[in-house]
Specification:
about 400 residues; about 5% strand; mainly alpha
Amino acid sequence: MKIKYTSIYAYLIYIIVFLNLGFFNLIMPFEYTGMLLAAVISIITFFIYIFQPVKYKLPGKWYQIYLMLIFCIYIYHFFNLKKTNISSMTLLSAFNNNEGIFLLLLVFPIYEILKGNDKEKFLKNLAILGYLALMIRLIVWGMYNFINIDIAPYMIRGLDWNRMVLGRSFIRVSGTFLDIYTFIYSINAFFKSIYSHHYKISAFIGILFIFLYSVLISQYRMVSLALLSVLILVILKETYNSQRRLLNVLLFIMLIILIMIIGHGIIMNFINSFSLNASTGSSTSTRLNGLPFIEEEWKNSSIWNGFGFSNDNMTYMNMTYWLSDYGFLANLFQFGIIGFLICLVPFIYGIYFSIVSFFKEKNIYVLGFTVYLLITSTTFNPMRNQYISILPFYIAFMLFYKERNKI
């Protein structure tokens, strides 16, 4: 039996996703090791793709140009590390903190899978991995907060990483990079079930589970806001494009009412947490206080090329500021105006694609990814190791639907 290239790609990508979903953190600190292995496997997968005799051609040239420029930016800063280093970072540390860039090579094999016959199976298996990772984290969170048993200390960032929910302080357990994919997959499955007259309750439960996980367990405000925004826009899009508009509108209203009933107190805490005067808004205040210092470091280095790779934590006047807290803006400080504009390319194209296809294309993946990444990038840098794993899927979906719809 001849093994298909797409099958090889799929299994290798499952391994990469598994490594970066943090399953091994149940028994050991595996974040850096997992990303290193994922980077190596990504390079191997790319070389297998290179030697594949017959393959689909990616539409346009923008991704290849973007990929080449991104690698040029990173190589430049690796070689320029000693000259622009503001935090005495070693070359090895710089590599360990940025090796996730090699995952962008996965766009090519993912595109092959999306064009092949095993696309639906691949998408389903990714969603299963995403749900499995969240279920394990839910168990870890529940056991720690309710019966005080810590079965996975490497999944819990620290005892001070907590927030108040409904008058009680809970230790938080973060979600995964795959949450947005799993969320969109569930929304897509739900609407497909409506159109086929076979209502899929499991998909609806999945949507609610991921949203409530972000609100109650990880308690990432921007993630909750992003998921809700994705859901609203997708429902509006599907309502416009569907002949069953009245049903979709009713479902939309019911869902919003359900969220408001379940999470009234939570939503109010979420809104109040942005207040600079509130104790829960301290993270927002810290970000704003540290911005002038980091901006000055950038200007003193080079506004065009940035201050290059640096440690995430930066100390100024006995205060520690985390570069990762500034989201996508961190790329401006590190890579300068030139690098920042290059990093923006997929998101600019995603905005364009989402607008052009909003009233034409029924697919919701590109729209969902774009809205989610734009909102969460205010606090999460999608170019960092922890979050970059979702980018190859985002770009591959854009390329796939661009070719299919000739946009």
